[in-house]
Amino acid sequence: MSSTMPPPPDDNGSSSARTPLIPHTPPFPPRRGVSRLHPLPLLVAAAFAASYHLFIPAPAPSYYQSLLLSLGSNDTAAAHLRALTLRPHLAGSEANAVAAAHVSSTLSSLSFPVRVTPYSVLLTYPIHRSLSLSAPGHAAAPFALVQDTYPGDPYAAASAEAVPTFLAYAASGSVAAEVVYANYGRPEDFAYLTARGVDVAGKVVLARYGEVYRGDIVMNARDAGAAAAVIYTDAKDYAKGKAFPDGPWMPPTGVQVGSTFKAAGDPTTPMWASSEGCERLSVAEAMATDDMPRIPALPVSGRDGEAILQLIGGDVAPDDWQGGDGAPVYRLGPGPAVLNLTYIGNETMATIQNVISVIEGKEEPERYIILGNHRDAWTFGAVDPNSGTAALLELAQRFSELQKKGWRPRRTIILCNWDAEEYGLVGSTEWVEENRAMLTSRTVAYLNVDSAVYGAGFYASATPQLDELLKEASKQVQSPDNETQSLYDLWMASASSSLIGRLGGGGSDYSAFVQHIGIPSADISMGSEYAVYHSLYDDFVWMEKFGDPLFRRHVSVASMWGLVALRLSDDEILPFNYSTYAVELENGATDIHERLLGVPITVSPLQKSIEEFRRAALQVDSELKALRTWKVWYPWRNNPLKVRELNDRLMMTERAFTDREGLPGRPWYKHLIYAPSRHNDYGAQVYPGVDDAIQMAEISNTSESWRSVQHEIYRIARVINQASLVLSGGLT
Active site includes 421? Predict the structure, then answer.
């Protein structure tokens, strides 16, 4: 597996040289186009026409929105997905360089300027793995640690290129010890083992996927004193029906591989960009940080996990720790089962490539709408992530067609295809860190699509000021599964609890934009989960048979993605609504208040700051209504400076929720409203600093720890007050 990737050839119009691609701010404000005429009273309209008889209005934005929706192509999406998933393409591999070249050449063929931005980063690959099981009366039995292909598998030959099953950044080492079963590997699971008198120290922990990030499972095991960890896919969660290729569920030998790194970006450049000649930690220093697992660990299949469970003794595990129908009785251990585990990894500096393309805005080229998806995959990546890559390229084709019809976005649209997301959001994080000052001053919003299509149902997460825009856009997009319904109707039927999720989790490339620099962001997908996640079976056949047989869902995601991008790029007044944000802040404060009942902590500063923010949101809503009404009836009396000032406030309010010191113990996470849970990187936590402080105070129960809770409440109140000032546009 190559550790470097050559740039795509020059003849496709791309460049890997470090010259600026994003347009510079012109020395004078760009000339603004004339607004489209709206219906006027008859006499006024006649007078206006007499004075401006040579004026021919450009098509309204709604024209281009309708045109965009009409241009969707199932065949284009399918062709791109097939091309991208011919081979497994792990970050740093030659196959991923080929995938980068496909993205770059496609965008260049549409006459978009393209560049490839490389970074040298720390990645890890397996050199050797072995795992054997023994117990009294049972001879040692080695596990094959291989995902089987099936008869007639068209990708059987290419499967040989897939990386052997492993957990990225696991420590190298050998361990032979008794096994303890730890359910989903959450803190509460290890607390239960302690309460039952089950000693984890020096043992091999067996846990199952399904509730928390795999890196948290390994680190929770480490913190409990375990010598190693093994994670398996339980049939109860991943094999609820027919296994692939006969059904969509995980085959018995399927293994979920993935990263165990708890931070974001290149491990050798924490808090700064991995640019050429930069300061770096050594590989040994990077691997020794608390963000690394620091114990050996391996993933195994459901079949292998069940074989281990059959030989574990001790007390019977609780009912909610048990498997599904037909599973053996799960016991806690320790032993008598013994696992002999060896993992040797190769931690190496490798070159990754982000592909960046720009559609320059006409009136406000220095304002950016950024669309992002990652390209690298653990195996073939038909769902994760290349359903999103295919949607991005299909959407780019539509943008090209709009340009042929005369469209130029008001603001600049940037299309980003990230690399090494699977290792720890590496490509997007390095780009954000390298361009931090530009992005914080110019970016309107970031729109992420990771895995575009898992299956049926529509799902969205966002920072709250984008909620109404997402709802409005979804009403214009047709449901891919019912021609008589809109995507909004499908969304309503899909929602199990809250309609729109929040972007506090660390599961995809929105993380650096929201949690590090405070950019309004959204993330959308069709389907919520799928059983063959990160396994050999996430291939084009699975997608064609089960995920999206007609590729209509790919087109719907691209339509929604593009429509939101058009609104953000072309609406003269940004379509943000902060009223929902005030509600979200209040709900979070209520939760904190309930958790602190009976504790001498006051949430009054937080409640007062939220009330101030609510007033600011109401004020800006009134301004927006007045300005929009005024512009409808008097379009020739434009006030561009007023519009610009209001848009700047709408754009910059999210930045005010960040704090330069970041979260305690997690300084990269600057956003004090949304960040990952300390014990589950996938979990979106509201007021994460307060949550961390409460958890620590409940454990230590000291006056100092409770003062830390109060301090975090004051910190949140301060950033909300700052956001109120930005939104209202006034000084104290």
Answer: yes
Residue 185 one-letter amino acid: G
* pLDDT tens string 399-434: 999 999 999 999 999 999 999 999 999 999 999 999
Rg (CA), the chain: 27
Name the 3-class secondary structure at 175: strand
Mean pLDDT computed over 43-64? 48
Contacts of 549 (CB under 8 A, 6+ apart): none
| For the chain, percent of residues with pLDDT exceeding 70 | 90
**Contact indicator for 425, 261 with CB cutoff of 8 Å:** no
The pLDDT of residue 632 is 57
Tokens of 193: 């083992």
Nearest Cα to 546, choosing from 387, 692, 691, 658? Answer: 387
Q: Which of 513, 517, 508 is nearest to 670 (CA)?
A: 517
User: Position 278: which residue type?
Assistant: C
336: preceding bond cis by omega (within 30 degrees): yes
What does the alpha-carbon distance between residue 446 and residue 433 come to, in Å, rounded to a whole number?
15
Taking residues 424-445, report their average pLDDT: 98
Does residue 445 contact residue 368 with C-beta atoms inside 8 Å?
Answer: no
Nearest to 240 by CA among 323, 139, 320: 323
Q: For residues 491 and 498, is the Cβ–Cβ distance under 8 A? A: no
Question: For the segment 630-655, what is each residue's pLDDT rounded down to a tens digit?
Answer: 655 555 346 788 889 999 999 999 99
Contact 511, 264 (CB under 8 A): yes
Per-residue pLDDT tens digits for 201-230? 999 999 999 999 999 999 999 999 999 999
Distance of CA 345 to the CA centre of its chain: 26
Q: Which residues pair with 246 in a beta bridge?
A: none
Q: At 138, list the tokens.
A: 């049972």
Angle at 440 between CA 566 and CA 647, to 5 degrees: 50
d(C-alpha 227, C-alpha 205), whole Å: 8
Alpha-carbon gap, residue 162 to 507, rounded angstroms: 23
For the chain, the average pLDDT equals: 91
- From residue 506, alpha-carbon distances to 516, 582, 681 in Å are 11, 23, 5
Contact between 330 and 322 under an 8 Å Cβ cutoff? The reply is yes
- Between CA 179 and CA 237 the distance in angstroms is 22
Question: Which domains, from first to last, does the chain contain?
Answer: 124-347 (3.50.30.30), 578-728 (1.20.930.40)
pLDDT at residue 13, as a whole number: 39
Structure tokens at 641: 């400076």
Strands 338-359 and 173-181 come out as antiparallel
Q: How confident is the model at residue 59 (pLDDT cuts 50, 70, 90)?
A: low
- Residue 701 makes CB contacts below 8 A (sequence gap 6+) with none
Cα dihedral 571, 573, 578, 580 sign: negative
pLDDT tens for residues 238-260?
999 999 999 999 999 999 999 99
Judge whether residue 352 has pLDDT over 60.
Answer: yes
Residue 579 neighbours by CB distance under 10 Å: 15
- Write down the catalytic residue from 178, 306, 394, 421: 421
DSSP structure class, residue 545? I
Type of residue found at 69: L
- Give the C-alpha separation, 555 to 576, whole Å: 25
